[in-house]
Every structure is written in structure tokens, then in C-alpha cells.
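agent> call fold_tool(seq_1)
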Amino acid sequence: MQQKVLDGRYELERKIGEGGMARIYAGRDLRLNRRVAVKIPHSHYLSDPEFLSRFRHEAQAAAMLTHPNIVDVYDVGQDGDIHYIVMEFVAGTDLKTIINREAPLPVARAVDLATQIAHGLHAAHKAGLVHRDIKPQNVIVTSDGRAHISDFGVAKSHLSTALTETGVAFGTVDYLSPEQAQGRPATPQSDLYALGVVLYEMLTGRLPFSGDSAVAVAMKHVTEPPTPPRQINPQIPAGLEALVLRALAKDPAQRPASALEFATALANYERAAQQATVINPGLARPAAPPPQPRLQPANPARGPGTTPSTGATGRVPIPARSTPTRAPRSDGLGCGVFLVGLLVLAGVLALVFVISSGMLGQLFAGFGGFGGGNGGNGGLVEQPTVTSERGTPTVTPEQGVSVPDLSGFSGEAADQVLRQVLLLPVRREANDATIAIGQVVSQEVAAGTLLPPGSPVTYTVSLGPLLVELPSVTRIPGNIARDRLVALGLTVEVREEASREVDAGFVISQSPNAGLSVPLGTAVTLVVSRGDVIRFPDVIGLQREQAEQILRATPGLELIYVDEQGRDRLVDYDRFADNEVVSAQIENGPGILNGQYIPRGSTIIIGVKRPE
């Protein structure tokens, strides 16, 4: 940065950090003579009024926070076209470095740090501010063990004007909550999920989810349960494991109700362990296990689901050894129940006989004349054969109903065909990219299957392709934009262009545009900035005079010297024509090839074969 002092007050000393939105400098407040940290947005955000407004709003919201576990914000200002935030300078080590160096941390230390972070989050949430990017890199730990939450750069506050802002990227994917991974708004429970990941990492030295790509990790946050941390580190108390898994619940409603509740639970995790084993056995394992066969209770006198009585002292009494007891007799009932069972069995067998012999259809046909039609004589009549529209018999009195082939029908036509052959239509709907909207995609019972009249037949009708609303991914790092789109089921094509307005690696534009609904799998083209660079013209191989004309006509480049090279310096001297350009380089820099992108303003030297 050229300017070293902002507003005549804040002197910038050195860059100490950089993220997707801003750079952070260590500096000094010359008026108060104290060290500060100064955050300055990347240059390409300076032309975005919405971002700058949000930048000020979030800074103002953070400035309202005063808490020992949050980095203080001192000032917000603008010097010319430079916007900045002045913050407390905290001398310490980021928690990620501590984890990489020392994890797994001692349980007491990990719990203490997580409790401090939770208290800081509680203060932020009370002020209406959601951090949205809690990770150990954003927690500074001082030498006396004090944790400070920093970087509210992607925070969301009640001062913001929209639920989802253009240009705000995902939180770091390793700590991303399931709802953020699915594109839903972040809430205070999203911060608690991220804190749960941080605590898991402190206790085990590992992240709960890993994968070959950011998208794979994000999907695991949404779909996969984490490995219980005690399987990695058996020294973790059971009650603490339960709290970590609760914070990592997929459903935000199953996480702690607030950061304060989580902090309190962490401070009392030993008591939680006792409650998990005595009062609430399900607390230690919040994720429901697969259904298991029900077992007989060990004590028949105790009903299912009851808990042992603790008595007035609160201790669980040791049960006396029980002796086998005979089940109570029910005199007078055994014979009666047996006879009733025989009668029911006989009735079922008779019904099966009637159905299998074809008499059921005749009985229905006979009663069909009751009250009219056949004069009400109630006699048996011959069951007619029903023929489908496709010309094949579908109902016969002996065989039942043949299920028609519904392929090619609309949903309404399929309903009518099934009713015509005395079957019950059951319609379902699903997205399908290959079948037109309203047409039958599939049927659960194969065509030609024989079913009794009135049997249900389920078929699925197409809703057309699943549509995805395109988010805005401009002005964020290209790799984050790509991961976000792929996570939505879209494909991404990247094209690079030079840009004087957008920093290198950030998205300049996207196509199709944000806000459109497109089918799953649609290709989205991202134009990513190469930075303020110029393509070096194809002058190597040309004659000197022509090359000089081209370079002097190229804006942003300056030809300062032509190096004539004779046989003593030029390898393969005889391979080149006299006065042919054989090489090019940036002054005091590397060599250049035709078509290579180089910084704007570069000074150029070309090498030319000197005639003998």
C-alpha cells in the first residue's frame, strides 16, 4: 500500500493477514500512541456501494460489542477512496497454530477455551450479530490463555439490509454448518455448530469431516454423522462427548438453545456425565441408533421405560437377588381363548378359499343387481370382460385384473385407465430431467401383473427437471465460487481475463446471471480475474523493426533496451535470421514468452541476433 498514514492518525506498519474480503495491517494510533490492527477491503470492492455500506454497518455493529473474548473495534473511517476499520491489536497466537502444534489439547484447556468463545458469541448474538465464520484461525489466544474472537468480516447483523448479501462467501468449509452448506441463512446455532467443530478438533487433533474437495466435506456436514470423539481420544469424558455431539447436530433445533447455555453446559460437563448415565441415558448419544429388537426387561416386575427409584438419599439401591416367579394364572380363560382362535382361523381359511376359487367375483356380480339393474332378484349374473383402450382383456372373472402399461400416458389419462379396469390409482410426483412435465415416469407394479379388483397401483408423474436458483458469486474468490456452485449440483467452467478493477483470483462475472432458476447440472461460466496484467504480444520470432513498433504501440508496456547478441552469446546462432527477435524479459525480472500475462507497467528488454 502506497499510503502509510490514514487520516493523519493511523500509521500502517506491515501486513499481518489477508482474507477473501480484506487485508489486515499492524499499525499504530499516533494520537493515542497505542498499537492497533487496521482492516482495509480489497481494491475491487471500492466500486461496490452495497459492499461498502455493509462493511460500515457490520463494523458499527461490532463496535457496539465490548467483551473480553471479542477483539474490540475502535474506529471506522474513510481516507479518500480507502475505507478502513481500526481494531484492538491482540498479541498472541491463533488457535489453529496451537491445535496444529499441541493437539489433542488437555480436556480442561480445551473446555476453557471453548467456554470463553461461547461467552463471546453470546455477547455477539445478544447484539444481533452472527459471526458466520467461526474457526480456530479467527480465535487469537494470548499468553495468559485468554481467547479473543476476531474477524467479523462475513458477519451478519440486524443492521444489514438483506438476508443474503452479494459477494459474501461461505464460511470455511471445515467448520461450515449443514444449513450454510445448503445455502440457507446462518443463525446463532450455525456459530454453535462451528464452535462444536473447533472443540472436536481441540480434543482429538482431527476435524470431524474430511474429503478430497471442499464440496465433499460440505456434503458430509449435511449427511454424515461425525465419528464420536471418544473413539479417537478415550480420555474425553462421556458427558463432554455428549455436549460436542449435541453441538454438531444436523438439525439446528437439536443444538444448544444459546451460546450461554452451551457455555454453562461446558462448565458443568462432569455433572452432565452423571446425568447422562442416571437421569437421561440418551444424552450421551444424541444421534439415534438403528432400531434394535426389543429385549425382555431383566426384572419382570418393572415395566418398560421405568427408571430405578433413587429414594430420599438420591442413591440407586442395589436390587436384592430375585427368584424366578410363576406367571399369574388366568383360570377359566385359556379354553375360551383357544376356541375363539380356532373360529377366527376357520373364518380366514374360508375367505381364502372363496377368493382363490373365483367365487368372490360371482358373489359381487350377484349382489350388483340389488335394488335395480337386474330387477333386484339378487341372483348371480355373469361377470363381463372389461377391455382396455389398448385392445387387450384386462378383467376376467377367473384371473382378476391385468395391470395396464402406463408409459406414455399423462397423469390424468393414467388415472382414468386404472379406474376403467377397476384398479385404484395412487399418484406420486418427482423431478425428472428426461420426461416431460405431467407424463408418467414409472409405475411400481409391472404391466401385465394380475391383481384383485380394487388393488392400488402407484405411478409417478414428472415434475420436470429440478431447478436451482443461481446465487451471486461475483467478487468472491474463484475457488469458493466454484465450490458453492458445484455443491448446488451445477457444473462450472472457468475463463480467466485481465482486470484493472478486480483483484487476481476473484470472480469478475458469471453466466447465467444470478437469480435465474436453471436445471440441475447446468453449466455456469465464471470469468475470473488475472489481475492488472497485460498479454505480452507475439514479437519473438519477428524482425527487430516490426517488434519495436508493436511493443511501443502496446499500452502498459515500455521497451527500454534492445540487446544485440552475436555468435559468442547466442546459442544456435545460425538457426536465426539476422535482426530476428530471439528472446524477451522484464527488466531485472524473468524471461517472457509470447502470449504470457505480465504486470501492467513492465519495462521490457528484447534480445536480437546481431548480423556478422
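agent> call fold_tool(seq_2)
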Amino acid sequence: MLQPKAGEVIVDVTAGRGGHAYALAQSAGGDATVVLFDLDKANLDFATERMRNLGVSVVPIHANFTTARNECKNRGLRADCVLADLGFASNQMDNPKRGMSFMSDGPLDMRLNPETGITAADVIRSTPEKELADIIYQYGEEPYSRRIAQKIVQERAKEPILSTVRLAQIVRDAYGARARSSRTNPATRTFMALRIVVNGELAALDALLADVETGCRKIDNCGWLNHGARIAVISFHSLEDRRVKQSFVALEKNGLAKRLTRKPLRASEVEMATNTRSRPAKLRAVTLPREEK
């Protein structure tokens, strides 16, 4: 979808460990510029080092992708390829100390940038019951949100909820007998909701999509997107995918871009078998008009 070429500017707004950026840089060949954004400084450093021997210029930026438009403009860069992979890096999910997962015990953190911001434990400790229920329902699409919030409030009154395993067990207890028939771990939606709130994920995505629209409108007036630029977003749940779909449909309707994907691209059965985390992934892409000769 992105088809990077030599000399182009490639912007990976969620660099992670640099897997996507590396593949894009290889495809582009020499003289490309690769701009890497990530909130996780350790991952950003790893991704930057990974690019060292590819013959491309690398611009690492330790910041949220909501700054991508301004950072590119300030550097005089106009993007030809933009990729946003909205999933978490595997090393973040697999590290118990980051508190992203309930598969092993760890502190209830969940921050993408472990150097700043509130943690999931802070949200659990200080959020009123009704608001907590709304968070779990709105961002986790959890039908038992009120029951879960009530149970959390009851348990935090006894002692602080500080670990992933304890929170997962509290959610399971709130489910009661329903936990045995649940197709996924009962804590899945609650953990997703907390991660979204802790990292402001949906607000950040809305800001990025707004900046893409602005870039499309200002293509001839010193915008941050180049003529013919390609933008791709990989989302992992319906709250993200719905926003991306609506934004890209609106861009096409207003003559600002053309959709490259009428329906989202999904991983093949073979890929899902070897990489289970690809199962919920949906990729949507658009391209801007090319400059008239």
C-alpha cells in the first residue's frame, strides 16, 4: 500500500522496535529519509540503531504522534509515506514490569512512556465508581462494566489494587459464573479500556486523523504531506477502526484523497497461525492526488 521509493520521506509515527520502518526503508532503497516517532525511548533508540546500515537518513523523535505534523513542518519535511500501527510493541506486552497484560503479574502501570503520566493504578485508585464504569463500558465495550466497577471499588476499599493479576482476578470475580463461558479472558476489555485512558489513545488518533485531513487540504501550501502521499493505519479494535474508516471515507467524499482499501486488509490464515497477535489487525490506506504536470 505504501510503496516507498528512493528519495522519499517515510514517517513511522509508531516506530516501536522498528520492524515496519526497517521493511519500508529496505523497499525504498537509498537516499530515503525515515522519521521515527515513539513514546518509548528505549524502543526508539533500538529502532534508530536498527536503521544504521540501510543507507537512509534517520530522524528519531521521542514524542507522541500527535506532534508529527508540526515536527515534520519544523524540519522542512513533507511525508510521502505515513504509517501508524496502533498496536503495542510486543516487548511492551511481554514485559510484566510494564503492566500491559494480565498473563503474568506486574505493577498496574500501562504507560507507553514510563517516564511520565498517570498509571492504571492511579486511575483505579481515584476514579469514582460511575465514572470508572463509564470508562470500562465506553473504551472496553464491556457489557458488565457496572458490576466490574462496583467490585473494584469494594476491593480498593480493603487495600490498594496495584498488580495486574489482582485486577484480573477482581474482574473475573465480578463476572461470576459467566467467566467460565467467556470466549476471552474476562479481564481483556477492562485492561483495554484502562490502557486507552492511561495513554489517551483515541484522542491521539483523532488528532492524527485531523492532521492528515489538514495535510490533504494544504498540499499546495506548505503542508506536511507531499503530492501523492500514501497514509496507512493499522488498528486493533472497533473503536480505532471506526474512526479511521469514517475519516478516510470523508477524505474521499470531499475529493481530498482516494481510498486504497474499500474494506480493511486482514492477515492471512497462515500469518495468523504463526503470529496470533495479527488476528484482530485491520489495515486501511488512502493516497493523495499527485501533482499535475
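agent> summarizing second result for user.
The longest strand covers residues 225-235. The CA atoms of residues 27 and 167 lie 44 Å apart.
agent> awaiting next instruction.
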